[in-house]
């Protein structure tokens, strides 16, 4: 039905926008994770706080890495969902995926 097709295109459009937003969120988390890494990458410096640290920095890099991992899993799942929708060979769904990706990158 036409209403079902419009709803399908809107869902694919939103999934594509969310996919692009996750890509940007992952990049932001990567930047924060790199800034949270200690100067020395020895095992002891990663597990123990450095001398003179005033905040709870122990494990901060691990939380960023864990967040990045979760973002990656969600991004892969969304990517496969959009790919499977596009492989339905429906022109409108394909155009919805392209429009969503464009809109998500623009925003």
TrEMBL record:
UniProt keyword annotations, A-Z: Copper, Copper transport, Ion transport, Membrane, Transmembrane, Transmembrane helix, Transport
Annotated TM spans: 6-22, 70-95
Localisation: Late endosome membrane; Membrane
Chief location category: membrane
One Gene Ontology cellular component: late endosome membrane
Recorded GO MF terms: copper ion transmembrane transporter activity
Superkingdom, taxonomy of origin: Eukaryota
Protein's membrane topology: Multi-pass membrane protein
Family from the record: Belongs to the copper transporter (Ctr) (TC 1.A.56) family. SLC31A subfamily.
Name of the protein: Copper transport protein
Species of origin: Cepphus grylle
Lineage start: Eukaryota, Metazoa, Chordata, Craniata, Vertebrata
């Amino acid at each position: 039905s036409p209403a079902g097709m419009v709803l399908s295109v809107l869902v694919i459009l939103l999934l594509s926008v969310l996919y692009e937003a996750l890509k940007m969120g992952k990049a932001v988390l990567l930047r924060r994770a790199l800034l949270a890494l200690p100067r020395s990458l020895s095992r002891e410096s990663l597990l123990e706080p450095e001398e003179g640290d005033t905040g709870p920095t122990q494990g901060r890099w691990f939380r960023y890495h864990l967040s990045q991992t979760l973002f990656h899993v969600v991004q892969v799942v969304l990517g496969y969902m959009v790919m499977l929708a596009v492989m339905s060979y429906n022109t409108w769904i394909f155009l919805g995926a392209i429009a969503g990706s464009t809109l998500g990158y623009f925003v």
